[in-house]
Design goal:
This protein is an alpha/beta fold. It has 2 domains: about 180 residues, 3-Layer(aba) Sandwich (Rossmann fold); about 80 residues, Rossmann fold, CATH 3.40.50.620. It is built from 9 helices and 12 strands. The strands form 5 sheets. A 3-stranded parallel β-sheet has the order 1-2-3, covered by helices on one side. A 3-stranded antiparallel β-sheet has the order 4-5-8. The protein has a two-stranded antiparallel ribbon with strand order 6-7. Bound molecules: zinc ion (ZN). Zinc ion binds next to loops.
Amino acid sequence: MHSPLPYRGRFAPTPSGPLHLGSLLTALASYLQARSAGGVWLLRIDDLDAERCRAEFVDAIQRQLEAHQLHWDEPPRLQSRHAAEYEPAFGRLQAQGLLFPCACTRAQLARDSLPGVDGPVYAGTCRERPPPAERPAWRLRAADGELRLDDAWQGDLRRRLGTDIGDFVVRRADGGIGYQLACVVDEAAQGTTEVVRGADLIGSSFRQMHLQARLGLPMPAYRHLPVLLDGCGRKLSKQNHAQPLVPAAAGDNLLHCLDLLGQAPPALLRGAPPPEVMQWAQAHWNASRVPTGPHLQPGG
Ligand SMILES: [Zn+2]
């Protein structure tokens, strides 16, 4: 028997906009999980997509987290500064003969992809085609088999590699490393022991578990929060114009999230300063009270 690794959790926003209530919900749950385990909480900035990401949002996100008393323990890790670390992982997949070039256009993918439980699944179009002349994307060939994830909040999740996940991109056509591959290298570099994130990322978690197995990397535990919906039943997101978090309302924002997370903060905390709210939250965090299932209704 060896003792379990010390808990290391992380929050990994994409700096394509400021944080909103949905992102605070994830950050807070992951922070409280880490603190209640006496562990470390880290910040990672998923800024590989240069078209969508902006430096001003990296700063804004850090200010928003600090205003909400969510303090990270080590210097933030910006993916864009670690590009060279992703190449050896790509090389190891290639050396195993697991990759093939894909020249499909966006229109072809939209036409050919198959419906899957987590979104469109690549149809395998380029698997047996000779390598195209132009710069291709690279995909990981999906093998047979099933992956299983015992999720504390979503229950027993299973995905078939071939039909539910399919061949997914590990290097984009523009030469940049794929999001899934970058994330598993980051989790290993940061020593993440548990990933807490939204249920909309369950498909990503399975892709990352598959990559970890192929690369022989340690596999963190995963738990997925129900996704916060807006008043129209859509995921609260930057695309749907969710309101940015206002630091001056940090105490109320935290209480709202604690309510949504089933923690039932006492009424006397209304109007309390954020450090007091967080002190209560850390002392009373109970992961088993978090609602289960894929969605959360607002105003709860
Ligand atoms: Zn293709």
